[in-house]
Amino acid sequence: MRTPKVLLLALAVAAGALALPGTASAAYSDPLTTTTKQNLVWHATPASALTALDSALPNVSLNTVVNDTSYAMTGCTTAEKASLPKAPVATKSMCWDADRAGTKTWSPQGITTSGDADDDGKWGDDKIILSGWHGTDELGRYNDARIQAINYNDPAKPSYRMLYLAVPNSTGSSFSAAQAHMGGMAWYGDKIYVTAEGNTSTAIRVFSTKHILQMTDTTSNSIGKTSGGYAAYTYKYAMMQVGYYTYAGGTCSMASDTGVPCFSSMSLDRSTTPASVVTTEYFSDQSLHGRLYRYPMGTDFLLSASSSGTVGATEALRSSVGNMQGVLSNNGKYYVAHSSATINGQLWTQTTAKSSSATCGTGTTACWAVHPEALTYDWSTGLVWSQSEWSTADCSAKNQVCGRAVFAVPLSSLPA
Q1: I want to staple 135 with a disulfide (CB 3.0 to 4.6 A). Which of 139, 163, 319, 376 is the partner?
Q2: What is the DSSP letter of 105?
Q3: Which residues are within 8 A (CB) of 215 and not within 5 positions of it... i.e. 6 or more apart?
Q4: pLDDT category, 23, cuts 50, 70, 90?
Q5: Tens-digit pLDDT profile for residues 314-341
Q6: Contact (CB, 8 A) for 296 and 276
Q7: Alpha helices, DSSP H only, in 103-249?
């Protein structure tokens, strides 16, 4: 989420509390409160469409993709290091090659790892980090979506390959670009969940590692069936959508905290039985309070749905933390990442009993990353991963010293 950040008052952010019109006592340090649950509805991609595309194109594994990397991750520059959290301190960090670090056509958002996906923390033999990006206005395809799949087998030499996200048509004769802001991601089994777009009825798109296709036309700047085969804007690989969830209440609203919520971020919680997905929503308007929802997993690594396809929320909570960019839940605690337009963000640990944040410097709670995005927890390593959004050029244009970084902190170092 980029544009609305400029509306946030940095002074109030630094204090970690903000008086809200009509709710003068509301502060980031207020505990979570319960609110109305919101349901989802599942819509599956026709199995025949997926089969048709699998037959028409080489179907490859995600392991093939991450062992066919085309770019190396790098160490971080001084400006990029300035984006890392002050407290808790990042114990792992890496940055993008120059093109990804500086691009204006794509923007990093959600993140997940093979620590979500499988019991041993790996996908097959590989340790993988998935970074989700959305297309910007400058690309000309706003909210087209891609994943940068990082091979993290050797943390000293990470590298990655990009793959496009696509939606098959009803017959599987072609496919189009998936529309998703990628604000949050969750990976469970073969299913990869991404948040879709605000102000639409589509809440979450679901893709599968069983349906990653190798393009036969890597020169056409188009997507789907072409005269030369199948293309995804010159990308070598595209991952197909296997279904999506809509909001049961209809079109969501990014201007209301009482209507249908627009999911801005998402992550997987493996500490519940069954595992569950948690979501949050983003508001730049400080008089609005974002909500958190939990949905349990069912069979085939999909959310638990009734025979009609309805998925019921098992938990619905409201937070007083503003500008929530990321959400994580583990062992009964919620962690929400807040962003500021001008200074470090904040990371709050919240329950219905209390809300607390780390402090740094002269006691400020503005200690998290600069322009932070989503959160994900790799239970196999005990690390919470996140990433920062703004490029060094974006930061410089606002007289800030920062940049894009992927980083991790131990869960044990987060506020109690």
Answers
A1: 139
A2: S
A3: 57, 229, 230, 231, 232, 235, 236, 237, 238
A4: very low
A5: 999 999 999 999 999 999 999 999 999 9
A6: yes
A7: 114-117
